[in-house]
Specification:
Elements lengths: L1 E2 L2 H7 L2 H9 L4 H22 L6 E6 L3 E3 L4 E9 L5 E7 L12 E5 L4 E8 L5 E13 L5 E16 L8 H11 L13 E7 L11 H6 L4 E6 L5 E7 L7 E2 L2 E2 H18 L3 E7 L3 E5 L7 H9 L11 H11 L5 E5 L9 H11 L3 E7 L7 H4 L3 H26 L3 E5 L4 H14 L4
Parallel strand pairs: 3-9, 12-15, 12-17, 17-18, 18-19
Antiparallel strand pairs: 1-9, 2-4, 4-7, 5-6, 5-8, 8-9, 10-11, 13-14, 15-16
């Protein structure tokens, strides 16, 4: 059962007979005790006469998936199967990160009637959000008290990464179309595929002239080239303890996901094959063998439930798994931390086995920002912040230098800039015919 806000008002109303009857000579304690007994009896009768919440049949409608930070419509359909009117409130049991309305929904359902309650969810966390039940409060006729009951009605909403870096996709696709020969720009270089023949135009590179085709034709013919297709890209997202580091408004793992989605969307349009591994000591998610338009949905669906684990990553196992995925040279993108030489020892030890057969890009969302040296010297807290930032920056430079000596390329940027930086590196390799 439950009581409403009317009950304290009714109890306080006992002051009126208390004053009147006390003035008439009756004991105050007897008057107030009698009033309390009357109120308790009224509450008991109101609770007994309240309709049963179980007489409401609950059905739920939810979208299967929603992006983090975007609204998702939740619907509850309540059908009154009893012969009495049900008045009261309904509370849906979503966790706070679902962004459900905080207030209870008021209901007034006639016998045999069905009503629909709509609520806008604003999820603030990736993964599966669940609501296993709703709580219904049915008021009694006096509105002093009523019955409360939990009614099972399971709902699951899978919250996907927001893919906010997709705003960079149109400009990168335009550059990709230039590389692919869909505009007037053609590329020629080591590792590119022959595309077609066209007539020579003044200003073209004479080294691209096809003399055999020219001999068979009445005009000078030129070879055009396009970047190779069907290349393999292996993206490894480190889900170990460094992935839980706060970077801007999120964590490093979120920035790695954004970079992966932008690179995956770009590579799918370029005709390349993308493999995703999210791993620490265990493989938390894996996507392989999915190409074209189905790739990005597969990536976001696999990433959605993965969270950073407070354990160190087994980089020897990561290297072994990458070798099994790449039977031929490929681009390997490692999304991990580069700011602590001590924590990077295992990673740096495994790096030469990857660079021996593939091109490797090591990308990291940085936690180091620009700090004003003058402010740092005049404020104690700022001085400690500056010292920590400078220590992390120097550590990151040492790790980056070690990555370069191992034959890989290191990229460090803030969370917003990391996805386009990774995409630009991929396009640069395509332009130079190295992928």
């Amino acid at each position: 059962m439950f009581v409403t806000g009317r009950l304290p008002i009714v109890v306080a109303g006992g002051l009126v007979p208390l004053v009147l009857l006390s003035a008439a000579g009756m004991p105050a304690w007897a008057v107030f005790g009698a009033w309390l007994l009357l109120v308790v009896a009224a509450v008991a009768v109101d609770t007994a006469l309240a309709p049963r919440p179980a007489d409401l049949r609950v059905a739920r409608t939810l979208p299967a998936r929603a992006r983090r930070g975007e609204a998702a419509l939740s619907e509850l359909r309540l059908t009154n199967t009893a012969g009495r009117r049900v008045r009261g409130w309904v509370r849906d049991a979503w966790q706070p990160t679902a962004g459900a309305p905080a207030a209870r929904a008021r209901i007034d359902v006639l016998s045999g009637q069905t009503i629909t309650l709509r609520a806008s969810l604003m999820p603030r966390r990736r993964g599966e959000l669940t609501s296993d039940f709703v709580v219904v409060r049915a008021l009694g006729p006096l509105s002093l008290a009523g019955r409360q009951q939990r009614i099972d009605a399971r709902g699951v909403l899978r919250v996907l990464p927001p893919f906010s870096s997709r705003r960079h996709l149109p400009s990168r696709l335009a550059r990709l179309r230039e590389l692919d020969g869909e505009t007037s720009v053609q590329v020629r270089g080591r590792g590119t595929e022959f595309d077609s023949l066209r007539e020579y135009v003044r200003g073209d590179d004479v080294r691209a002239i096809d003399w055999r085709a020219t001999a068979r034709s009445a005009t000078t013919m030129l070879r055009t080239w396009r970047p190779e297709r069907d290349r393999h890209i292996v993206v490894v997202i480190d889900t170990g303890r460094t992935a839980a580091t706060r970077v801007d408004d999120g964590v490093r793992l979120d920035a790695a996901m954004e970079a992966t989605l932008l690179l995956g969307a770009l590579a799918a349009r370029a005709g390349d094959h993308v493999h995703l591994v999210m791993m620490d000591r265990l493989v938390r998610a894996r996507v392989s063998g999915v190409d074209g338009a189905a790739l990005v949905p597969a990536l976001v669906d696999a990433m959605a439930p993965v969270e950073a684990q407070l354990i160190d990553t087994d980089w020897s196992e990561v290297a072994s798994l990458v070798r099994r995925l790449t039977a031929r040279p490929a681009l390997v993108v490692l999304l991990t931390a580069q700011d602590d030489p001590a924590a990077a020892r295992g990673f740096l030890a495994a790096l030469p086995t990857l660079t021996a057969r593939s091109r490797v890009l090591v990308a990291s969302a940085s936690t180091v920002g620009d700090t004003d040296d003058e402010t740092a010297t005049t404020d104690a807290d700022a001085a400690y912040t500056w010292a920590a930032s400078e220590h992390a920056r120097q550590g990151g430079e040492r790790v980056g230098a070690a990555i370069g000596r191992a034959g890989a390329v290191a990229v460090t940027a803030d969370a917003a800039s990391l996805p386009p930086r990774v995409a630009d590196h991929y396009l640069a390799l395509k332009l130079r015919g190295l992928l």
